[in-house]
Amino acid sequence: MELEIDFNQSPPRVRLLDPEELRSFAVAVVDQSARNEAEWPDAVARHEEHVWVRIDAIRALAEPQVAGEWDAGFEKVLEFARSRGWIDEDAAAVRGHVERRVSARDE
Question: 4 near 15, Cβ under 8 Å?
């Protein structure tokens, strides 16, 4: 599963790609050069070395793309992330590995 944040769009476009792929979670940041805090989309709780994505935003982006049993699989992903310290309970966010790109993935 990949959350793509495309800063080439204004406001930044946020898409959830491959939501059925529950074995990994990455955040693809497209053209992030010289971005200030105000430009980050609401789906992002915070960004540092990693991007912390609101769990409710992931669910909302996945909902039109997945079947009903997806949520049970996603809960297992969150349990694993929690065991690794990759959940920020206060922000209700999960940490995503950052991949930087110059262009968005084709739709």
Answer: yes
Per-residue pLDDT tens for 13-56? Answer: 999 999 999 999 999 988 766 455 557 677 776 666 788 899 99
Provide the number of structural domains found in the chain.
1
Q: Contact 54/25 with Cβ under 8 angstroms?
A: no
Q: pTM of the prediction?
A: 0.84
Contact predicate 31/8, CB 8 Å: yes
User: Considering the domain boundaries, does residue 107 fall inside one?
Assistant: no
Would you say 30 and 102 are in contact if contact means Cβ atoms under 8 Å apart? yes
What range does the domain containing 14 cover?
Answer: 2-101
